[in-house]
Batch of 2 targets.
Target 1
Amino acid sequence: MRLTGLRLHHVEIPLVTPFTTSFGTETVKETYLVEATLATPDGSATGWGECVASPDPLYSSEFLTAAVDVTRRWLAPALYAAGDDLTAETVAHLLRHIVGHPMAKAALEMAVLDAQLRWRDTSWSAHLGGVVDRVPSGVSVGIQEDAEAMVRTVGGYLDDGYRRIKLKIKPGADLEPVAAVRRAFGDDLLLQVDANAAYTLADANHLRRLDEFGLLLIEQPLGEADLRQHAVLASQLSTPICLDESIVSAEAAADAIMLGATSVINVKPGRVGGYLEARRIHDVARAHGIPVWCGGMVETGVGRAANAGLAALPGFTLPGDISGSDRFYEEDILTEPILMHDGYVDVPTGPGTGVEIDPAQLERRRVAVTDVPAG
Ligand code: OSB
Ligand code: MG
């Protein structure tokens, strides 16, 4: 295939409720969707990607305007320069000399893979190796005003049918909400927490107090670069550690596993440079008997559909952060929203990501367009 056109659609979509993590509060989703047009041997194909970078570099060093800039000035030119040799499998290789920027790279690879699979009439999940037609749906619950509010909010999600609850925590908002939720909903509730790197090893004694709540795991308690310190912490907790921010590649996943820094992995395609690297992480983890689950980055239906396809792989043995779009958005940007039924999200079966963008919804949410033409 050959890249013939690239357009970034900048969108802003209000969230149904503010989402608070240890690093900040979001009330609006800001991102861009990538529309890539490719010439194929028999015509042309269009694919869509979604960038998961946030406006501010708080979750990771990447941020939205940097992703746009690196795409325009370095990534897109490298893909155009590949001529007829472009396939989804070559994207990461063609971009490897540009250091970092995995989320910008992932959005491009996603669009090229979507176009390729639509052209080949193959679904995302079938291509990646999915083995199930629906995936259990977990929900990530932001930090609330107090423990009572947390119990109320979690109760609402359980009424909706979510099968696993993840509570965001930070110093000063950890033991109390966790204890209250465990007390309110009992020992059978699949419950886990996510600290988004808000603690240090000096907090080990405090974090050990979470052990009594029977959590599935604690996600990323320490900093992104602190693999060795996570290994030390793991030796002091009975709650399993699951790394998110630290797992930036399949190599990092292998290192973390060998060091004993992680016993579960949150796989996020954007964080690792794309769905193909995400599959490699699944493969490495599976070979080591390490369970994985699919994380989320508050995606629109576009990214949510692709995540559901990935989560259908056999190593995804824990429920992921794959909620219905209505967990975050009043309306999806798709013709058919991604929804949860009976605690599961269906894995799309159509070609590519299997979902279609609703042109009217896109226009309604679009705040700008960046065209990135060849040369
Ligand atoms: O750490 O998993 C995270 C959202 C934004 C940035 C980081 C994280 C999250 C979530 C939300 O927890 C997951 C979702 O999309 O449902
Ligand atoms: Mg996380």
Target 2
Amino acid sequence: MVAIKNYDLYINGAFVPSTSGERFDARNPFSGEVHATIAQASDAEVAAAVAAARECFEQTWRKTSGLERGRLMHRLADLLERDADPMGTLETTDNGKIVRETRAQMRFVARTLRFFAGYCDKIYGKVIPLDRLDHFDYATLEPLGVIGIITAWNSPIALLGNKLPAALAAGCTVVVKPSEHASVTTLEFAKLVEEAGFPAGVFNVVTGDARTGAALVEGGGLDKISFTGSGVGGRAIAQAAGRNLTPVILELGGKSPNIIFDDADIGKATVGALAGIFAATGQTCIAGSRLLVQRPVYDRVLSGLVERAERIKLGDPLDLATEMGTAANEPQFERILAFINSARQEGARLMTGGEAARDGALAKGLFVKPTIFADVSNDMMVAREEIFGPVLSVIPFETEEEAIAIGNDTRFGLASGIWTTNLNRMHRVSSALRTGMVWVNTYRAVAAQTPFGGVKESGYGRERGEEGMKEFLATKNVMINLSEAERDPFAVQT
Ligand code: NAD
């Protein structure tokens, strides 16, 4: 029996109960046990959180110096590093992602906080020389205001870490709505924000299902919304936000092509292909779920992949030796198995996996065996839809042009991978692929400094890097007339 923790909402620097009276369970997808209960926020509490964030923005945070904002962010990074292991353990308990990954993600979020902490006192404007020398002009960068952050269940803190540091550095305050399937670490994160000494109201958390997200988006009072989740959720949010004219950043799904050319280092490429799809149980938006392999090396790559996939150690996500954990929740588990069945019916050749793993210690967990389909054609559903699970579609190709055409033949455009030793090809193909990110001879490598985001139905806007910072800043132009001359009131001044 685990001790069950009951979490309230975090509004204006304090944990407060929900007046809705509704609570829902946080369930460990490995053991099936409930380990926490979460409050379902009512619309009134969502509004209170937005009001607290607004008040703090106007009265405190926008007036806090960059030096002080940076200092607080570094302190938060210290605390997250201090607690990276227990926070990782908790996230793993909540969503089944292996602890090797969740702990590393906590440290990466601390790194991202430090990157953006460095921006806080360097948000410079510019002086703009005009045609009229008797006018002086400058443009400043100002914080946008209150930001609504809505995240998915696969990596709650890592997704928050893609958004929050830039928002805080810019001088914005936030209201976060984590996924109903994985809320606890975001609430624990609130305790670290408080311990770091941030003013009350900078960081607020409202928990609940899509109704809570909708209340946040539709209630108004936000200056921007940053969303990570499904295309269905993204569309609903963009439409609702549009009615309030609230701008949005959308980080949605992907069906990323990972392309192995016959001149590649096949050993490294095979490991990269594995990392692309079986890391995080494939429950990542950047999963390299379509593996395109050039004919001359097709059989070799396939047999290497199958051999390694069959040795992947499934097990308790809290065990450091485990390589692949569970699906994060029951609906996701069922969805993955349904896609596997559809691939079979469509005639894809099953090389390994293809079913749930229920033996021995895995019995209670939502495990799906690492699954590889060969001879997939790009028009099959398994190659077109985002599965968000450990299911790889291997697609053969003959020429570079064909690889590019197949790679781009998708409604998504988040990430792509290229494996080649040919320098010219690296540049040709990375230029031709319509994705927001391209990895060459690596896959699923991340950095605080680099822009993250997609094109096409993978969304719009960018996170991390300088581009991530700009998302939360508004440019203000100030034009000053220095002359004593009278103007013509009926003609525009140029
Ligand atoms: P989801 O869209 O169902 O839910 C995401 C969040 O939005 C949750 O907090 C949910 O409660 C909320 N929500 C859902 N509908 C809403 C609505 N109408 N109004 C307001 N809020 C709403 O997505 P999910 O199943 O939690 O996450 C999986 C998806 O996330 C996958 O498609 C995956 O590709 C995507 N994802 C993208 C990235 C990225 O950075 N591009 C990263 C991770 C996951």
